[in-house]
């Protein structure tokens, strides 16, 4: 009985989760003008690729991409990079 209640509560909690919106590429992103012309054929599907650039505000940032089964790149995160003390 306790497991059934816990399972129902967990299922309700997961159903309430909303999907994260897709990040839009910005100028300087690898996928800004669409997918790159060359495919990453040697990297395994699910591999992570990082790319440093200046964001739309001129701040140093790092983007994280994941290689998809069709060998395309999906932008999953962008965060500012803070260098210095």
Written account of the structure:
The chain starts with a helix and ends in a 5-residue tail after the last strand. It is built from one helix and three strands; from the N terminus they run H-E-E-E. The protein is extended. It has 85 residues and is α+β, with helices and mostly antiparallel strands. A three-stranded antiparallel β-sheet has the order 1-2-3, with no helix packed on it. The protein has one helix at residues 2-16; strands at residues 48-54, 60-67, 73-80.
Describe the structure in brief.
The protein is of the alpha+beta class. The chain is 18% helix and 27% strand.
Question: What secondary-structure arrangement, pairings included, does this model have?
Answer:
Blueprint: H1 2-16, E1 48-54, E2 60-67, E3 73-80
Antiparallel strand pairs: 1-2, 2-3
Query: What is the approximate shape?
Result: extended
Number of helices: 1
**On the 0-100 scale, what is the average pLDDT?**
85
Largest sheet: 3 strands, antiparallel
- How much helix, percentage-wise, in residues? 10-25%
Task: Provide the structure class.
Answer: alpha+beta
Strand and helix order: HEEE
Count of strand segments:
3
Strand content: 25-35%
Low-confidence stretches: none
Query: For the CA atoms, what is the radius of gyration?
Result: 18 Å
Measure the end-to-end span: 54 Å
Strand order of the largest sheet: 1-2-3
